Amino acid sequence: xxxxxxxxxxxxxxxxxxxxxxxxxxxxxxxxxxxxxxxxxxxxxxxxxxxxxxxxxxxxxxxxxxxxxxxxxxxxxxxxxxxxxxxxxxxxxxxxxxxxxxxxxxxxxxxxxxxxxxxxxxxxxxxxxxxxxxxxxxxxxxxxxxxxxxxxxxxxxxxxxxxxxxxxxxxxxxxxxx
Length: 178
Prior knowledge:
Blueprint: E1 4-13, E2 18-25, E3 31-38, E4 42-47, E5 53-61, E6 66-70, E7 73-75, H1 82-94, E8 96-98, E9 101-107, E10 118-123, E11 126-128, E12 140-145, H2 149-154, H3 161-176
Parallel strand pairs: 4-10
Antiparallel strand pairs: 1-2, 2-3, 4-7, 5-6, 5-12, 8-11, 9-10
């Protein structure tokens, strides 16, 4: 059954989040008060090199108090295309300028509570242009073999949903082409 949204009331809004209370009709005409997080779309990229390695950031996420590898990803600015945002985020967060970007996947990482959309691209080369713009984005930036992705997932060193989706998908594509 498709749920019917009768109304949404804002609970909290700032530049990053719009948290709402939705009155939705579910099966049998019953109503459910459901929280919804509305947010702007994001874009990122999995960047590979000629040696089959992927560019990753090792970072701490204070909300879950966990460390893990992630691909560069961030918000899409007004008037910016997802592809341009992905390239900008890679440069800002890693200090590497990605080569030509191709669409890899589209994800809705938490569709049960959020309308967040992630546009993920892949680049097959990158050029080092300097240090990351912000020293708080990652503890370190490094190149790891794409073949290590399943091990990183198993060892809970890759737990970010969008990064995991992108890297496992890229790993599967790479494995099926061999």
